[in-house]
Amino acid sequence: MHFLVILTTTILLSSSPSSQSSNHGSQERISVSTVNNWAGKLGGELWILGEYVTSREEIQKSYKTAQVYRKDGNTIAREIANDIKNMTDLKISAVKRIMDSAEATAVSQQDEVVTEYEYYNTKTLRPPGEPLEKGGKEMILTPNKHFYNIPVNTSHSAVHVPTNVYDQAPDILKAIKWSENLNEIFIRNYQDDPSLSWQYFGSSSGFMRQYPAMQWRNDSVDLYDCRTRSWYIEAAASPKDMVILVDNSGSMTGIRKEIARHVVSNILDTLGNNDFVNIFNFSEEIDEVVPCFKDVLVQANLANVREFKQGMKDLHTDKIANFSAVLIKAFELLQQYRETKQGACCNQAIMLITDGVPYNYKDIFEEYNWKNSDEMPVRVFTYLIGREVTDVREVKWMACANRGYYVPLSTLAEVREQVLHYIPVMARPLVLTKTEHPINWTPVYADITDPKMTDWLWEKRECSEQKEIYEIYYRDRFRSKHISNEEHDRRYVQKIRRAQDNDEDSEDYQKYQLMTSVSMPVFDQRENATRIAHLLGVAGTDVPIQDIQKLMVPHKLGVNGYAFVITNNGYILTHPDLRPVFQGILKPSYNSVDMAEVELVNDRREARDFNPKLREFRSDVINQSTGATTLDVKYHFDDMKRASYTKRHYYYTGIDNTPFTLVVALPDHYGLVSVNAQLEIRRQYAEGVNVSQFFQGDNWRIHPDWIYCKYHYDSEHEFPSPEAEFRHFLVRTGNPNWKWLSKRSVTPPEHVEQCDRELFLSLIFDGRATKGFSSRNLSSNQESKKEFQQRLGVTIAFVATHSGLTRWQELPGEENREQLRFGDIHNRAIDEIWYKRAVEQHYVEEDSFVYSVPFDDGEGYRNDTLVTASHAIFSHKSQPENKYPVAVVGFQFRHMSLHALFKNITSTCENCRSTCDSDELECYVLDNNGYIIVSESLKDTGKFFGEVQGNIMEMMVQEDLYKRIRVFDYQAVCFREDGIKNKAPFLLTPLNHLKWMLEWFVGNIVWLLLEGNLKCLGHLSWAFSSEDDYHDGSYIPTDTTFVEDSEEQNMKPTEPPYEKLQINRTRPEPCDMEMDLYKLQYDNNRVFGKKAEEGCARPFVVQKINFSNMVLVVVDTLCPFLEEKKLSIAPTEVKYNHSLACFKVHTGDLPRKRPKSCIREHPKEKEIELCGHGTQVEDSILPVLLCWLITFLLGGKH
Question: CA nearest 1185: which of 413, 412, 257, 387?
Answer without folding.
Answer: 387
